[in-house]
Amino acid sequence: MEQNYKINGIQQIGVGIDDVQKAFRWYGVHLGADINVFEDSNTATHMAQYMGGQPHKKCAILALNLQGGGGYELWQYLDRKPQASQEIIQTGDLGIFLAKIKTQDITQSFERLRSQNVKILSDIETCPDGSRCFFIQDPWDNILQVQEFTSWFMKKKKYDTGGVFGCMIGVSNIDISLKLYQDILGYDQVIYDKTGTFEDLQKLPNGNQKFRRILLTHSENRTGGFAPLLGRTQIELIQAIDYIPKKIYANRYWGDIGYIHLCFDVRNIGSLIQTCDKKGFPFHVKSGGAFDMGEANGAWGYIEDSDGTLIEFVETFKVALIKPLGLNINLTKRDADQPLPAWIIKAMSLRRKRFDKN
To answer: How far apart (Å, rounded) are the C-alpha atoms in residues 47 and 312?
Structure first.
């Protein structure tokens, strides 16, 4: 079969928490992710192998910022208490260490979040690529990097931040990891590849250690229905040099507190499955055709990177705009390379949650 799958962008990053409604409010109020793309409460069966070998009841909300970027799949166990890491997660530990959040005004974002009593971990720092950033922490101790970025779907003065445009992933060997992130996911352009100690990481746990960091992006613009919304993306791989990193999810379940997966919006998932199998990254989980996700519908599956970090792929068939009226976005009847009209994407604002700011 010809390799004709497409990676359309980062759809979302999975965040395990212990209160999905509280998390939706926090990410909506502070980071503008106030669009409820879907809300799904049922029993998670497909991921049993990562949940102690049995299905579990869960609730999940996909929260999105319409300024542009990926969203947050906020995921909560309903039949067991989600477990936090017993140790402080260190910079360079194996797995998704932080999410990268775009801002159009770094100073405004810094001052606003400080005024909202968000936990800020650093001053505004200069990243190795010359952009400016700072680090914050959500109430579940997940670290987020708020960073200047130029790829936007919309810009409105009342929203200084957008959505997720990437993440930092701890790996044991960058050169081995590139076989997935470059060869399959298409992050073929190296923005920097540096080894040493880094000023921008100094305030993070163990951030004063020596690392190799490689920042990747894609040389070609992504295509597909939601590509204008998802925008350009980056993946940063970080490898500890002077210490042996631990697995972030060692002795815990997928869905426990922390970053549980990175999810890509794709087209022709069948071709992707064949490519991943051929290149040594087989799908460990498959939805088995169309699968309902609350008010959305699609096919999905998971692979592991060379250190066991879970990467999800979703081929979306349908997204509900106004459920009572039966108004949906049906992607199966469209040219896979063509973006949706901007007005259709903007119509997702009908699913905005109005949060009390008090």
So the answer is: 11
